[in-house]
């Protein structure tokens, strides 16, 4: 059992961190005690904001000696309540936002070392200034931090070509639950010293260590990009199109998103200054993006392949963006779906993945399963077909009180969705993590072997349960 912090611990932490790094005032803490969705609210004895790795280590050491729990937090933009303390008021909220230095960018090696509090969008700009690109982006890039992205193994729209955050992490520096510093920043290509602690910490959601810095892989800045909005009949045909483009174009293919007409229609109704890219409505759309050099003739190659796809009946229509403004307009349609869905009314969001080849099957079959169990329930799937991750939103029947319906049936509806996902060999969390929102369903539905292994790792590294208790595996 963890304990409430004694007054002498608070005094020592205040002296260590000073007024910029130690706060207990309600008005200062309040914005950070609620998760991004407003689903979870907690309390904290204090918010600790160390400015260096050494300060993090000293803070953690003091809390460990006093058996006081620590909840790490980055940009507080997570989707599963993974960085929100509980309601006891006994936990310490440890913010990494003051650790916001980009320590180095090695232009020869294509590597950068960034501290945990560096905001993703700022990191993008810094890399581009040196002729490089960090190939991970997402809607919350203006608030998400490097430490949070590492700790949740974040994904985004470029996973198809570059992988998740884990694939882009070449090294990690972290403070472990006993206050010791793990220095694994060296970007070793070969390191055969047993378990890979870097990969273990990536995706651990702050339950095994507090990431303080990471060595990140960069790719050359794209000199050109080509974006297309395509109308087609089904996810099955979209998958065939993806396979065709991947075989014919390969490396430059960085994004492949699918959007049903219902989602696009909601965006057009609720998001100002948006317009349909095509002349007519289609059941489904694909958003395709290539990135590369000026001499790669991206537009010519994509136009050639789309003509072949049209001739073969894979697509019904399509348009290629003529400039950067049109490309951004296409992406705005995709990135605004969640906002538009919120305007439509309450829904349950499921961030799931299945093997790419089975994604059309899931999208086709799951709505029928839902309506059989919950008459009138509706389902919309959109997102990253290229990496097998779609956002699957379940909406209440149109003629009922949506919030009351979700309160009565939401958990069972989610259980049905997740059972179907696991039946197909998938995951109930593709890129947002488990946090506290999915913790109980994870324990109920996932593999006992997986859960036992995770609990064993947690017990070995954090036997007192001081790091982010109640998240991921309890």
Record the SSE blueprint.
Layout: H1 7-21, E1 22-23, H2 26-29, E2 46-48, H3 53-66, E3 70-73, E4 92-95, E5 102-106, E6 111-115, H4 120-129, E7 132-133, H5 146-151, H6 159-162, H7 165-168, E8 169-175, E9 181-184, H8 197-201, E10 210-217, E11 219-220, E12 224-232, H9 235-249, E13 253-260, H10 261-270, E14 284-292, H11 298-311, E15 317-320, H12 324-335, H13 337-344, E16 348-353, H14 359-373, E17 378-384, E18 389-395, H15 402-423, H16 439-445, H17 448-461
Parallel strand pairs: 2-4, 3-4
Antiparallel strand pairs: 1-2, 5-6, 6-10, 7-11, 8-9, 8-10, 12-14, 12-15, 13-14, 16-18, 17-18
Helix pairs in contact: 1-3, 9-11, 10-13, 14-15
């Amino acid at each position: 059992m963890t304990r409430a912090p004694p007054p002498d611990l608070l005094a020592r932490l205040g002296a260590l961190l000073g007024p910029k790094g130690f706060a207990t005032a309600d008005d200062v803490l309040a914005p950070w005690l609620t998760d991004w969705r407003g689903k979870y609210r907690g309390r904290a004895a204090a918010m600790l904001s160390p400015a260096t790795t050494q300060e993090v280590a000293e803070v953690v050491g003091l809390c460990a000696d006093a058996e006081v729990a620590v909840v790490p937090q980055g940009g507080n933009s997570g989707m599963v309540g993974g960085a929100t303390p509980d309601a006891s008021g006994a936990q310490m909220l440890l913010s990494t936002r003051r650790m916001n230095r980009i320590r180095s960018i090695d232009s020869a090696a294509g590597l950068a070392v960034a501290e945990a509090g560096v905001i993703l969008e700022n990191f993008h700009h810094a890399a581009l200034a040196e002729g490089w690109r960090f190939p991970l982006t997402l809607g919350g890039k203006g608030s998400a931090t490097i430490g949070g992205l590492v700790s949740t193994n974040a994904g985004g729209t470029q996973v198809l070509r570059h992988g998740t955050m884990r694939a882009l992490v070449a090294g990690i520096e972290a403070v472990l639950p006993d206050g010791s510093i793990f220095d694994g920043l060296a970007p070793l290509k070969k390191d055969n010293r047993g378990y890979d602690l870097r990969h273990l910490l990536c995706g651990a959601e702050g339950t095994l260590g507090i990431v303080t810095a990471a060595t990140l892989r960069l790719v050359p800045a794209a000199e050109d990009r080509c974006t297309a909005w395509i109308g087609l009949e089904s996810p099955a045909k979209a998958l065939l199109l993806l396979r065709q483009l991947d075989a014919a174009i390969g490396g430059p293919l960085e994004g492949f998103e699918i959007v049903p007409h219902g989602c696009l229609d909601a965006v057009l109704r609720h998001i100002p200054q948006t317009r349909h890219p095509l002349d007519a409505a289609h059941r489904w759309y694909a958003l395709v993006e290539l990135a590369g050099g000026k001499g790669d003739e991206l537009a010519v190659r994509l136009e050639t392949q789309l003509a072949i796809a049209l001739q073969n009946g894979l697509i019904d229509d399509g348009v290629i963006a003529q400039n950067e403004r049109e490309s951004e307009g296409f992406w705005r349609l995709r990135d605004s779906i969640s906002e538009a869905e919120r305007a439509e009314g309450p829904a349950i969001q499921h961030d799931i993945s299945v093997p790419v080849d089975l994604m059309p099957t899931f999208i086709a079959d799951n709505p029928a399963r839902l309506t059989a169990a919950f008459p009138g329930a509706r389902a919309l799937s959109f997102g990253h077909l290229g990496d097998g991750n779609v956002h699957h939103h379940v909406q209440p029947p149109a003629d009922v009180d949506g919030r009351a319906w979700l309160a009565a049936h939401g958990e069972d509806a989610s259980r049905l969705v997740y059972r179907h996902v696991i039946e197909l060999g998938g995951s109930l969390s593709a890129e947002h993590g488990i946090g506290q929102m999915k913790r109980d369903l994870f324990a109920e539905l996932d593999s006992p072997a997986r859960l036992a292994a995770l609990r064993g790792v947690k017990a070995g590294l954090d036997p007192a349960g001081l790091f982010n208790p109640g998240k991921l595996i309890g």
